[in-house]
Each structure stands twice: as C-alpha cells, then as structure tokens.
Amino acid sequence: MKLSLGRISGSKNIFLYSSLLVFFVFLITRVQYFLYYPVLVLSSDSASYCAVAFDILNSQTPLFDIRTPGYPLFISLIWMVSKTVYALAIAQSLFTLSVSIFFLWVIEQTYRSLTFLFAISISAFISSTYYLVLEVSLLTEGIFVCMLLLSAGLLILALKKNKISVWAMYSASVSVVIIIRPAGLFLFAVMALIFVYFIVNKYKFKFYLSLFVPFTIIIFSLCFYNYMTLKLFTITPFGEANLSGATILFMEPSPEYPQYVNEAIKNTLDSIPRTEINYVKNASGISQLYHTFNNNFYRQVNLTENLMRADTSLRFVGVQPIVRQISIDAIKSNPKIYAKFVVSNFLFFFNNVKIVMDYYEQLSNILTRTYIDKKYEKELESGRWRQVSNDKSDNEEIKVFFKQETGKQNELEHVKITEDNRIEFRQTFLKSLFEVYENVNNFLFRNYLWLVLFCAVFFISFIKLIKSRFKDVDVFIPFLFTVIYITKAILVSLVEVSLTRYSFTVEFAIYFSLPFLVLLLRKNKSNTLITNNK
Q1: Is 387 left (phi over 0), alpha (psi -120 to 50) or beta?
Q2: d(CA 471, CA 464)
Q3: CA 173 – CA 70 distance, rounded (Å)
Q4: pLDDT per residue as tens digits for the range 150-168
Q5: Angle in degrees, CA 187, 188, 190, rounded to 5
Q6: CA–CA separation, 301 and 307 (whole Å)
Q7: What's the pTM?
Q8: pLDDT tens, 256-267?
Q9: What is d(CA 332, CA 329) in angstroms, rounded to the nearest whole number?
Q10: What is each CA distance from 223 to 61, 231, 235, 236, in whole angstroms?
Q11: Which residues are paired to 424 by β-bridges?
C-alpha cells in the first residue's frame, strides 16, 4: 500500500517512523566504524583538552587558560568509567543519537505534520562525512554540535510553549554551548533578537529573567573562576590567539614594541614565503586569498612560541595581551587586507556546503598521521609549546597516553598497514553498505540546492516577519535558524579561516530549510498572532 507524505503526517505513528529513520541512518553510518575500523582520531588540539581532563581526574585545580571547561569535564566523566578514546567516541555518538531523537520529539510537539521532513534533514546532517569523522574525534566537535542542536530544539519548544522552565533550560543550554566552545558566542545575536521579540510582544518580566538569569549565572561563574585562578575576568583568554592567525600575513614590527617582540614578529614573518605576504597586499581574487590566508593561519602558534622563547618568564596568559596589541595594530594599519580576510572567509563559509570528503580516505590520512608519522607524539616530545599546557608534567602524561592509544591501532583486525606504509581497509558488508550511503548522501545533500533553499527561507521569513510586525512565532523561528548560520559565518570570518570543520557545526540550519520552507509557504493570510503570556 502506497503511503504518501500527507498520510504519514497524519499518522499516529509519525514520531515512531521518523525516529526509526534517524536510528537506521545512525546505525549504517556508525556500526561499521565501531565494529571494524575504530581509527584513533586525534589532532594537534587534542592534547590541550587532555591536559585539563587529566588535572580534573588527578584532583588538581584545573586552569582554563587555553581551553574552556565544557569538553574536558565531559572527557573526565567518561574516563572515570573507561580511560580510552574509544569509550569517548562511543559516548559522543550516543549523545548524537539522543539529541537527534529529542529534537524530533520537539518537532512532534510543535510542528507535528513536519516531523518526517525534519527526520530527513536530521539524518542528512548527522551522516555527512564531516560529522562522522569529527563525532568520534578527541575534539570539542564531538559534543559541541550536539549541544547546538539541543539548544535549537529547546529554542523551538520555548517559543511555541512559552513556559518559564523551558526558557530557563534554553538559557542554560546557550551558556553550556559557550563553555564547551567560545565560538558559541554567535548565539548572542539570537538572544538579542529574542529580547526584541519579548519587548514587541509585551512579555512579562519573568520571561526576561528566565532567558537571561541562568545564562548569566553560569557564564559569570566561569569568569569568576578564571579571575580566581588566572587573575582574568574572562570566559577564556585564548580567543585572542585566533585573531593573531587572521593578521599573521600583515602584522608588522613597530618602534613602540619591545625589541624581543619585534624579533618574534620578524622571525615569524621570515618563515612565510614573501610571495604570499605580497599577494594578500595586492591581489583581490577571493579563492586564492582564502587559500593563502588558510595556509598561513596556524603560524600564530609560531608567533606565540617565538615570544615565549624570547622571554622565558612569559606564560601563555602573559603573552596574549602582546599578541592582541600586535593584531589590533595590524588591522589598524592594514584595514583593506583585513577586509579581504573577512570577505573571502565569509563567502567560503557558504561555499563549504558543496565540499565532499571521502570517509575512508580521511581515516587513512588520520591513521598515517597518528600511527605511521606519530605526528602528535613527536609534537609532545619536541618540548615546544603547542597550545597544550604551561605545566610540562601534563605533556609527559599526555605523551604516555597517546602512545598507549596509538599502540592499539596495530591490533585492528580489519585495518592493514603494509610494509610500505599504505593503509588498507578490509572489505565488509557494513563497509560496502556505508559506501553506498555516503555516495547517496553526497549526491543529495552536498550541493548548492540547499543553499538556495536556505536563502529562500531567509528572505521569505524576513519579509513575513516585517509584515507581522515581529509577532508571528511561526515565521520568527525559521528566521532565527537562518540567523544562527549567518552569525556563525560572521563570527568565524572575523577571527579565523572558514574551514568545513567550523561550518558543518551549524549545517542543520541549512538542512532544516526544507521543512521550514514548507511551513512558510503553507501559512495563509489568516494566521493568528501570538497573544498568550504577554
């Protein structure tokens, strides 16, 4: 019997069908990894998260000078049970499944007829190659993306149900997103729009309290902790390091800087090909500019190392005011070059929706870096500061842990490393099934069509919102989701390169364009404006 989308929407089992779709996609994209190919996914950033997590596990006072506490706390909770990256990867995958089902439940409670369309969108989002690789990594993406989706679900529930308790949970979720990764600060724009929405629709004062008090308490608690431990009232002192990456190609020595600072800048600039420095000054090609900035962004680490080497009394927190001043002066002296950085990265943020990545090729590259090249062990053995910790004992503990975890890669039965260091993944039915799904997913969802749908939702929701005088909640919600993606693009473009690693975290806003567009087109002129709880 044929079952149309309309009949599914009217079925009492819509939530069950939708959940089964998400669960099925979750299984065919994860089981093959955990059963046969659990490649260790590390990066140069992983060690700094481990450093804080080890301090927590060792009952030491953790310092959040480089990393905020959210992800290290999550790591330490998992490692109290099983101190392996494999256990962490399982926990992060299960978190994805749980949040996905929760979000579907929210849709079932608020936009029931669209539940199955949202299930398709969620399935597309959580099964992209980028999501799959980073979900099992020892990086914040493993839980940051889930918390964003959880927060987005609470946002819909709060706007549709208008319950104080839900608004408080949404407020707390935003603060948790930021504590996991300060890049979540782009959600300030969403909260500002909600504040305006409250004013226009004459919400009672208790709603303002529920929106801002939980957030304020949690964020200020972190700032106060950092003041007690670092003497800095801040969410994190590390954010300024990204700005130095954005300005690395056009920063300059200055007679106002101490000699050792000028020497650190000169040594950093000497390591950059002169042609690339000249290119960003004179060229305007968006694509080449993006790649030039991208190729040199992480030389910010070299600048920090050069400063700390020149003055051995400096620690990371002490270096940051110097780096901030260098970056601000670079922007003041070269505003046009900085504008090129912002524009090229902003445009490439949207371009990332069409970029594809081969899953097993990526696993092969990761295994080569971790097991064959031993890249991350060598970084720790070098004794150089690599955004890990100011405590050298942390480096030693992490190095031992990485060696233990890397050694397990030799025990993988379905992954063969040949004598000439080639990686071979033995074929299994689950691998074949996944590869078919990956090709389908890339064909259907990694293209500009979704960007077109996104732009349609943005413009239609914006126009309808203006016409409703900022009162139509069913227009306001789709508009907020487009704002989530756009403001993340703006924030990233201001301080760092728009890698797919950063843009995929909010791609759910792109894929939700399909059900939101249906919602917007289905609305008629007789829509009633919200009147409850004003």
Answers
A1: left
A2: 10
A3: 12
A4: 999 999 999 999 999 999 9
A5: 65
A6: 10
A7: 0.92
A8: 999 999 999 999
A9: 5
A10: 15, 10, 5, 8
A11: 416
